[in-house]
Structure formats: structure tokens, C-alpha cells
Amino acid sequence: MKRILLTTLAIVGMTTGLHAQMSFGLRTAANFAKEVRYSSYGSSAYPAITRLHVEAYVELPLRNNFALQPGVALQQTGSKMSTGSQNDEILMDGWRKVQYLEVPLNLMYYFPQNNFGQFFLAGGPYTSIAISGKEKFSRTVEEIQFGTRKNSNEMKKYDAGLNFLAGFKLTNGFSVHGGYGLGLLDIKLDDKISTYNRVFSIGLGYQL
User: Fold this and answer.
1) DSSP notation for 164-196
2) I want to staple 194 with a disulfide (CB 3.0 to 4.6 A). Which of 158, 159, 186, 201 is the partner?
């Protein structure tokens, strides 16, 4: 995982030095995050929890309406959690909230510009490292432990996956977008259950 992160940072550094016509942007979004679990009994997912995404990026124009967008983001993930049942109904008053420092590398494609702006599609890999996290169970809030031992109460410190983005950028630099983050690494230290991040997002941006 560390090699993936270092490789991504190296690509960002080399690419930034190759192109002088770069621009800078800021993107923020509301995340609707959840965790998907897979076990020998099948798959399950708790309801999404609303979180935050804030990202600063550099855009490097390429040929034929393509551009490269390396960035650094605060990515908040998590999920609502069940804490028991009452009258045959599952109680969803627990939650898990995790903050990651994320490094995305998106390949952008801009459709031909009109008088108002242009549509865009984007996608690419990301790597991230957890910087903090909390869990709530039975009215008790605890700090998440990030480790390397096989323990169902601990989480892995690293995540990686793919980002997908679509939106519209106005000629004045403002934009609206929707996105999806597909986590590809198991984030829990548990032999019996595999857990992955899934994040839908809707947000706004501005590019200089």
C-alpha cells in the first residue's frame, strides 16, 4: 500500500513539472458514505451516512480535450450501524466515521465547449491513509484503533480504489458534479468479514 501511495505521489510530481499551462481548483461535496460487507453468508450494507469531501487539485491539459488532475483531499467515510433490535425492528442509532487523507489521480475528458461551459467525465485511482476515526455503539463513542493485528475492533490504516466523476463546468470556472468512490481494499482487520468503502457524492467546485 505504501508503494502505491509513493508511486502516485511520484507521478503527480513528475507530471506537474512537465506542463506549464496548469490551473488550480477546489472541490467540495456532500458524501453519502456506506460500508459494504462480504462474508460466507453473503453481502450486506448498512444505510449511508452524510459526510464531507474537500479537495484541492492541479489540472494539466493534455491533447484532444483530455486533462490530468492530481489532487489532495480530505475524504470522510463511514456508515450507520445497528446497535440491536426492538419490536422486531433493527435500531440504527450507531455509526462509524473515518477521516482519510486521500490522493486521487483523475483523467478528465471535456466535451466541446459551448457558450455556457462544458460537460466533463473523469475517472482514476486513489490512495488514502486514515488520520482519525470514531465509532458509536450503545451510546458510547470510542476512538477507532488502526493497526495490523487481526482484531474485529481494529481497522486498517490504508485504503485504495477508483474514483468516477461527471459534471458541468461553467465558463467562469464554477462547476457542479456527482461522483462515486469504489473502495477496493478490505478496511477491517477481520478474518470472517471483508469490508469496503462506497461513497456517492454531490458537490460544487471552482477552477482558476
Assistant:
1) EEEEEEETTSEEEEEEEEEE-S--B--SS-EEE
2) 186
Q: Give the pLDDT confidence score for residue 48 in this predicted structure.
A: 93
Other C-beta atoms closer than 10 Å to the C-beta of 113 total 12
**Which residues in the chain show pLDDT less than 50?**
16-19
- pLDDT at residue 163, as a whole number: 98
DSSP alpha helices (H): ranges in the chain? 2-18
pLDDT at 91: 63
Please check whether residue 52 is in contact with residue 78, taking contact to mean a CB–CB distance below 8 angstroms.
no
Q: Which single residue is written with the C-alpha cell 450494507?
A: 45
Per the CB < 8 A criterion, the answer to whether 77 and 52 are in contact is: no
Q: Which cell numbers in the block locate residue 19?
A: 506542463
- At 115, the amino acid letter reads N
Position 155, amino acid? M
- Residues 197, 96: Cα–Cα separation, whole Å: 12
Q: What is the pLDDT of residue 92?
A: 65
Scored b (16 or more CB within 10 A) or e, 60-93 reads beeeeeebbbbbebbbbbbbbbebeeeeeeeeee
Q: How many residues does the chain have?
A: 208
21 vs 68: CA distance, rounded Å: 12
